[in-house]
Amino acid sequence: xxxxxxxxxxxxxxxxxxxxxxxxxxxxxxxxxxxxxxxxxxxxxxxxxxxxxxxxxxxxxxxxxxxxxxxxxxxxxxxxxxxxxxxxxxxxxxxxxxxxxxxxxxxxxxxxxxxxxxxxxxxxxxxxxxxxxxxxxxxxxxxxxxxxxxxxxxxxxxxxxxxxxxxxxxxxxxxxxxxxxxxxxxxxxxxxxxxxxxxxxxxxxxxxxxxxxxxxxxxxxxxxxxxxxxxxxxxxxxxxxxxxxxxxxxxxxxxxxxxxxxxxxxxxxxxxxxxxxxxxxxxxxxxxxxxxxxxxxxxxxxxxxxxxxxxxxxxxxxxx
Length: 320
Ligand SMILES: Nc1ncnc2c1ncn2[C@@H]1O[C@H](COP(=O)(O)OP(=O)(O)OP(=O)(O)O)[C@@H](O)[C@H]1O
Known about the structure:
Layout: H1 4-13, E1 28-37, E2 40-50, E3 55-59, H2 66-73, E4 81-86, H3 94-97, E5 100-103, H4 115-123, H5 132-138, H6 154-166, E6 172-176, H7 184-199, E7 203-207, H8 211-217, E8 220-225, E9 228-233, H9 235-243, E10 245-250, H10 255-259, E11 264-270, E12 273-278, H11 281-291, E13 296-301, H12 305-312, H13 315-318
Helix pairs in contact: 9-12
The structure holds adenosine-5'-triphosphate (ATP).
């Protein structure tokens, strides 16, 4: 297995002559990428682009192809078909690698080094690294600088891996399940750092199984399933697309009538109130107010991202 150290070392040592392709607006892009492992198709004509200053969350059930997409953009594997570009170049080129930081699930680092030694090692790979104290601060490693990696807790290891991804002051950061094992305080601390990165114009691609995390951080969510994009948009757009929004109110309108309104997907009675689920709630509310002037206790709610996610991805794959 490639260690995280070897991956980063390669970043600055490999020189791969490849034609530069201009992608003026995208920091990184997968263009119609298919990736097969034998008979298994991990990515199936997937296109995805990342732009400066945005946090993009890549969501999908187990085996959807999220890690494969990240590995392709890191140049750790090549596409079977299609193109991968990072800063306009092949991601294996030194010009793009030096501007990229990564925190991977599979990362393994030497257990016998101290936190400070890991940080110094990673800083040595880059021409203009972040200051040691800055790495310690943004990764919340104060007080454990002299601890051996093997003595760190799961959450502390995650924080160190985040710090190592930051050592080169990257313009593009890949975070694969970054907050697994972190307590709430550390998770919130990392979220704050991710927001700061985006405010400084950096680009972050995040994969996570915590939908709350995608909802809280991402400017854009890309949902993939079976190697294809099944939905893409802001968290609010994804939520409304997956399951619609709900209108809750006291009304004399009947269920029979409400079912005739456009885009309605459910009508229920809950504790004396009528609850209508619809894809185009504004149009439905307008019609309801026109037909029932006495309508009261009106509330419109978005579904949880989790509901939308489950509606967008197939149960067969989700249970992989
Ligand atoms: N090196 C490999 N050799 C063979 N098959 C692979 C390899 N890497 C990934 N796959 C397969 O490709 C598909 C996509 O895997 P990938 O790890 O990208 O999914 P994922 O969305 O990251 O999943 P998870 O959420 O479980 O981490 C899966 O069917 C997986 O078994």
